[in-house]
TrEMBL record:
Segments crossing the lipid bilayer: none
InterPro entries: NTF2-like_dom_sf, SnoaL-like
Domain of life: Bacteria
Protein name, as recorded: Nuclear transport factor 2 family protein
UniProt source species: Variovorax ureilyticus
Upper taxonomic lineage: Bacteria, Pseudomonadati, Pseudomonadota, Betaproteobacteria, Burkholderiales
């Protein structure tokens, strides 16, 4: 991982700008937050994941606002002091169906944009899969443990 290229305040503002763009269903503003090849990983149980590319990510969030009445709040943010990474907790309010989902995300930045988001949900595990993990995320290549100690 390369050294951080911007201040923690810069990355904090970028995440908040991203969430503002999500809430506004502003496709162009969303696009401006991501590298063209950005990836958004999710736990299993969702269709068509991971979302690959800034255009796909932007389109999907606009759909959530239009279809589910989605709105998001940023509950906590932690920014690395020496790497282009951050961790947040959020709430996804699905206003049209009267539900909410809480979770956390790990962010990787490249230059002045978001390169990767890994979402983790505070929800029941999917009993249909053996290992609940992010769909399409290469755990082995990233040095994660592939079995328990």
């Amino acid at each position: 991982m390369s050294l951080q290229t911007h201040s923690p305040e810069f990355y904090d503002a970028l995440i908040r700008r991203y969430f503002d763009a999500c809430n506004a269903a502003d496709y162009d503003a969303l696009m401006s937050c991501f590298t063209p090849d950005a990836v958004h990983y999710f736990p299993s149980g969702l269709p068509e994941v991971p979302w690959r590319g800034a255009a796909t990510i932007s389109r999907k969030w606009v759909w959530c606002v239009e279809t589910l009445g989605s709105q998001w709040t940023v509950d906590r943010i932690l920014i690395s002091h020496d790497k282009p990474e951050a961790m947040i907790e959020w709430t996804h309010w699905k206003n049209k169906i009267g539900t909410a989902l809480r979770g956390a995300e790990w962010y990787i930045f490249e230059g002045d944009r978001i390169k990767e988001i890994r979402a983790y949900y505070a929800s029941p595990a999917d009993k249909e899969v053996r290992i609940n993990e992010l769909v399409g995320f290469d755990y082995a290549a990233r040095g994660y443990h592939l079995k328990s100690a």
